[in-house]
Write a structure and sequence with these properties.
Layout (H helix, E strand, L loop, with lengths): L2 H11 L1 H12 L1 H6 L9 H27 L2 E2 H8 L3 H13 L3 E7 L2 E6 L2
Antiparallel strand pairs: 1-3, 2-3
Length: 117
């Protein structure tokens, strides 16, 4: 999946997050020209900042999409997305802070997450 497809997917699941990424991408040419301090970014420098942001937003959107189908634990989500459990847990903590997911209950001692609203 290319960058534009990932961005469109993020926008479809998290419009606010997708818009923030789009605004940053729109400023790419300005940043390559010069920033407010008169410094110039290279294409590589921009990619070093933008690519991890897009990857993280894409993974969070995938988590939200799966939780839209049903509740799940960190382990279940990690297995379905082929991601490290710690990475999934980090994304879920961020999504909890943003009030996009909630803890629906527990399976044994593991929290079960649900997409809000």
């Amino acid at each position: 999946m290319d960058m534009e497809e990932k961005l469109q997917f993020v926008k479809s699941i998290d419009p606010e997050g997708g818009d923030r990424l789009s605004r940053l991408l729109e400023r790419k040419s300005l940043l390559l020209d010069r920033n407010v301090y008169g410094e110039r970014f290279t294409g590589r420098q921009f990619s070093l900042v933008f690519d991890p942001l897009l990857a993280s937003a894409f993974e969070k959107a995938q988590i939200l999409e799966l939780l839209g189908e049903g509740d799940g634990t960190v382990e279940w989500l990690a297995c379905r997305l082929d991601l490290d459990k710690a990475r999934v847990f980090g994304h879920l903590k961020d999504l909890l802070k943003k009030n996009m997911v909630e803890i629906a209950g527990f399976e044994e001692r593991h929290p079960v997450f649900r997409k809000k609203g």
